[in-house]
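Support request from a user on the community tier.

User writes: "When I paste my structure tokens into the form, the page sometimes reloads and wipes my input. The last time it worked, I copied everything first. Here is what I submitted, just in case something in the input itself triggers the reload:"
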């Protein structure tokens, strides 16, 4: 652990160069390794001299230590400048040091032939100039190296022509080799710096692209995380790849992770109709994108709700489906409003149809008394002109009867119009109490007809307007007593059996004349009387039907001629739930 820490610290120290230009920074890093290499070689030489110093005199050891130390200090100077950010200055100083060493070597040897082994610093100086500085520095370095070589030739003291030719050969070979190398270094240095510049520019562009992509992904991630609608990705085989928090909440899961681990089959776990997803996938195979796909879905607790999905298919380069992605919106409130609107439209249509029938019936049935009145008014004129007071009196009575009939019909219509507004606050009422109240009102007819009324015991309670529900039973009992016919043992039965749509089904059954099946609906219309000689206006059953419907129930009749009639109706037993 300690070695690793030292290595990382050393790497950090080496990389910590205060140079902004990336190309110069890379070149400076290379120069730094060269300088450290020279210093390391010198330090190794010092250590070897100390270890192997037994073969040398103390004076030689001291001289060697001083020379090596001076060399270490000389190479440490450009390293210090480089660590402070002076890249070009450190390169030039190093090149100058190498030239000085070569020049001193040639000058001390007084011969190029003797200094041939120490000319390598000139070549190294040219390499550094060509790679690290540029073409001008390379040309200058090459020219100075030629000058050092010429100096070596001039300083040669020997008059031996062979030695002179050797010096000239050394100088020529060096110039030729380093000249060719200079040409190579010139091209290579330019190419290297251009390549490094392009690489760093590309790296910078890539960093910017990566940074922009990371920012975009972070922004997209925040949008997905904070979205109101559900966002998802799913595989063709029915598993989720990803869901956002809104999607998880919508389906009743604690978190996206909970939903991803819990839902292993979207078709059966999410859709009430498991064939929905198959149909969706078939459409996506052709349409690529679907907007507003509505379905009834399950939550985690298996409660249901309506959703609207926008889905698109994602394919690879070969057109193979990789996954689906899209959004999901909870449209349960909208579907509820649509259902209520549709119900209201149907109810309005029914009301309009009822209003049309009502208008027709009223105009038709009220017209009859008016025709009678109009006709007998003409007779009254004739009676008055002829002085026939007996006929005058008879015709006056007929007009009076027609007026009374119209007044009665108008009163019944007024009563019918009031049924939509309950007279009393609805309450829980024992059904037996309603029967008792109605029996009191029709007691005379029951007694006169010798009718036996059987009441089923322990009838349930109902919820509604006591007065209006009493009117229902009053009309049904009165209607039953009127149409007993010549029944020798007239009987009415009142009871309850079963339920329909959560409402109790009650019945009033008689053994009277009965009703033909063709008139089972007709009898509930306004002023519809099967027997024109019977008492009343024919509005009684219409009132009954209206009261029952206002209470949320329905009424119907089961009857055959000669077999009596059974009027059945439903009533709620408790208050409806608040919406």
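"...and here is what came back when it finally went through:"
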């Amino acid at each position: 652990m300690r070695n690793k820490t030292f290595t990382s610290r050393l790497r950090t120290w080496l990389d910590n160069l205060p140079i902004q230009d990336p190309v110069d920074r890379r070149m400076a890093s290379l120069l730094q390794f060269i300088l450290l290499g020279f210093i390391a070689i010198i330090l190794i030489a010092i250590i070897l001299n100390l270890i192997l110093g037994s073969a040398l005199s103390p004076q030689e050891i001291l001289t060697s230590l001083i020379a090596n130390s001076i060399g270490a200090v000389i190479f440490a100077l450009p390293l210090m400048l480089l660590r402070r950010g002076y890249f070009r200055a450190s390169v030039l100083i190093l090149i100058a040091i190498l030239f000085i060493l070569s020049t001193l070597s040639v000058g001390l040897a007084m011969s190029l032939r003797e200094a041939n082994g120490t000319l390598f610093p000139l070549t190294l100086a040219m390499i550094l100039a060509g790679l690290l500085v540029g073409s001008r520095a390379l040309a200058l370095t090459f020219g100075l190296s030629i000058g050092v070589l010429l100096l070596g030739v001039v300083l040669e003291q020997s008059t031996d022509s062979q030695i002179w030719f050797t010096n000239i050969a050394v100088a020529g070979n060096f110039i030729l080799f380093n000249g060719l190398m200079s040409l190579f270094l010139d091209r290579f240095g330019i190419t290297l710096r251009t390549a490094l510049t392009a690489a760093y520019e590309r790296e910078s562009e890539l960093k910017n692209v990566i940074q922009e992509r990371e920012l975009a992904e972070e922004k997209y991630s925040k949008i997905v995380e904070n979205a109101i609608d559900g966002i998802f990705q799913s595989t063709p085989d029915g598993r989720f790849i990803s869901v956002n928090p809104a999607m998880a909440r919508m389906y009743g899961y604690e978190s996206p992770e909970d939903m991803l681990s819990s839902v292993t089959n979207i078709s059966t776990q999410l859709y009430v109709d498991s064939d929905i997803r198959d149909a969706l996938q078939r459409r996506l195979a052709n349409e690529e994108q679907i907007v507003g796909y509505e379905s009834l879905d399950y939550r985690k607790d298996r409660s249901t709700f309506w959703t609207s999905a926008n889905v698109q298919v994602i394919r690879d380069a070969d057109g193979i489906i990789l996954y689906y992605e899209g959004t999901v919106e909870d449209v349960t409130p909208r579907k509820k409003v649509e259902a209520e609107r549709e119900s209201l439209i149907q109810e309005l249509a029914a009301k309009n149809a009822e209003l049309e029938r009502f208008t027709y019936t009223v105009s038709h049935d009220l017209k009859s008394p008016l025709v009678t009145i109009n006709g007998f008014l003409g007779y009254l004129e004739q009676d008055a002109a002829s002085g026939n007071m007996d006929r005058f009196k008879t015709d006056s009575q007929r007009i009076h009867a027609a007026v009374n009939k119209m007044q009665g019909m108008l009163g019944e219509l007024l009563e019918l119009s009031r049924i939509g507004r309950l007279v009393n606050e609805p309450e829980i009422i024992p059904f037996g109490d309603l029967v008792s109240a109605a029996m009191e009102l029709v007691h005379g007819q029951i007694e006169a007809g010798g009718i036996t009324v059987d009441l089923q015991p322990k009838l349930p309670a109902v919820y509604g307007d006591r007065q209006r529900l009493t009117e229902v039973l009053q009309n049904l009992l009165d209607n039953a007593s009127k149409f007993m016919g010549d029944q020798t043992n007239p009987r009415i039965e009142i009871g309850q059996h079963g339920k329909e749509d959560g409402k109790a089904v009650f019945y009033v059954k008689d053994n009277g004349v009965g009703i033909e099946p063709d008139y089972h609906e007709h009898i509930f219309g306004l002023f519809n009387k099967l027997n024109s000689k019977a008492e009343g206006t024919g509005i009684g059953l219409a009132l009954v039907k209206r009261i029952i419907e206002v209470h949320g129930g329905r009424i119907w009749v089961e009857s055959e001629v000669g077999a009596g009639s059974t009027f059945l109706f439903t009533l709620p037993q408790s208050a409806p739930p608040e919406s």
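Agent notes: The reload is a front-end session timeout and is unrelated to the input. The two ends are 71 Å apart (CA to CA). The chain has a mean pLDDT of 79. Escalated to web team.
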